[in-house]
Amino acid sequence: MPKAAQDHLKIENGDTIWLTEAPDGTLSLTPYSPDFERQMKLAEQIMDENRDALRALAK
Asked: Helix crossing, 34-49 with 51-58: angle to 10°?
């Protein structure tokens, strides 16, 4: 990958990048996994909504 593209994506040699396709067929390269990001947002939401129960379970 050209150095200019690496700089734009803020990645270095050896980093994992993700190629995703949007419903309209547009391709996108990202330095993170969109699925992982979505899962983490859901996990944070669940932890926020169930904070008291999670604290009780941790005891």
From this structure: 80
Classify the phi-psi angles of 10: left when phi > 0, otherwise alpha if psi is within -120 to 50, otherwise beta.
Answer: left
Residue 52 CA to residue 48 CA, distance in Å, equals 9
**pLDDT tier at 35 (50, 70, 90 boundaries)?**
confident
pLDDT of 26 higher than 90: yes
In 3D, which of 49, 45, 8 has the Cα closest to residue 30?
8
- Amino acid, single-letter form, for residue 23: P
Residue 45 has, within 13 A of its CA and on its CB side, a CA count of 6
Which residues lie closer than 8 Å to 47 by C-beta, 6 or more apart? 54
